[in-house]
Amino acid sequence: MLFLAELVTLLDVRGLVSWHVVIGVLLVPPALLKTAVNGWRMLRYYARGRTYRAAGPPIVLLRILGPFVVLATLALLGSGLTLIALGEQRSRSSAIPLLGDWVSLHQAMFVFFDVVAGLHVLARLVPALMLVSGRRKEHPAAAGPVPGRTARVAVLVLTVAVAAVTAALVLPAASSWKNDDFGRFERPPGASAHP
Ligand code: HEM
What we know:
The chain is mainly α. It has one domain. It contains 6 helices and no strands. The chain has helices spanning about 1-10, 15-45, 50-55, 60-95, 100-130, 150-175. The longest helix has about 35 residues, at about 60-95. Bound molecules: protoporphyrin IX containing FE (HEM). Protoporphyrin IX containing FE (HEM) binds next to helix 1, helix 2, helix 4 and helix 5.
């Protein structure tokens, strides 16, 4: 949902930049949590944890894509945060080899993310639809209640709280991006910044 809302802000990112930043920052803690959880599952699998071994590895495509999905997600969010840390003027004027400036780097990470996350979602969607339609049986290791429900809910609530506090802290730092008419378009000579 949050990710879809972030995509909507891209329809007019200059006009909706505050929303773009808030929603983007709200995505950071859940993305870190998801990375940590999957990292833990991977570690337990390779450390020969009994239940993790019984559940088996994901399909090869997902195993190959995994590191790229993590890299692309962190690079997209990290480059967005870098834009805030640098401010609009420095982000647009600093020269990055091949790409131009930091905004172009953020855009390039968006394209990288779209490709790998798109493939990842497709690879997850097909088995999920097969499970729902009954064409595939649930893995026996996944049957029955999973212990630790309270702890999981507590971690989720904490993540949402951290996300809200982080967004509230970062938004004021993004004030240099609120000026809708800076940078991309030249102002006509003599025109004032605020009509
Ligand atoms: C920490 C999170 C994020 C922050 C702080 C952030 C910040 C920014 C800022 C300041 C801009 C420049 C806006 C302007 O040109 O006035 C921008 C542009 C952009 N952002 Fe993000 N962003 C974040 C996450 C994301 C995510 C998750 C996506 C993808 C869904 C994304 C995609 C883009 C794209 C494609 C542009 C370029 C739009 C254009 O120039 O037409 N950003 N971002």
